[in-house]
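EI: anyone free to look at a 179-residue chain?
SC: sure, send it
EI:
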Amino acid sequence: LVADFSGSMFSHGYTRKAGADYTNRYATYCNALLMEVGAALSKNDVPFGIATYGDVIVDYKAFTTPWKSVKSKVPCVTNMGSTATAEALHHSILALAKRTENKRVIVLVTDGDPNSCQATVSQMIEAKHAGIHLVVLYLAAEKTQFMVYLEAQHLIECVACQNPETLCQSFAQAIKDSF
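SC: here you go
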């Protein structure tokens, strides 16, 4: 699982509210998704890792780290800067390359375009060549031009998650379709 916690994840959300109410921000839903998915995967003994990113990549949970040691910590509570998607994908591809499972999947949760579209495309192609299935869950009502381009090139599947319910449903469907 790779989760975008760049600045826009904290300033945009499904419903805008005046003032400093961050309860409906994308970051809140992304944190909740990571916690629920982590608990479910752990319960079913499915190996997984969680990386969060903005300007830097943070391993919230490495594949070898027990879920119980991280589950009490919220994955991200602060704006992590810009959207270094290519770097986060590269980090995840390297981690998955060491894994021996037959099926390897990266689910990327983001709300916007990466810092470098070209570098991100290169990493998506690298994932494909490595036999890693990649799905992007895009937190917004409309896909960006970059997301539309990726789908037109048949690089990845981009799923627009228009509300918290579709975020959870889309994640479940992405995993089901990957296996």
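EI: DSSP finds six helices and six strands in the chain.
SC: 👍
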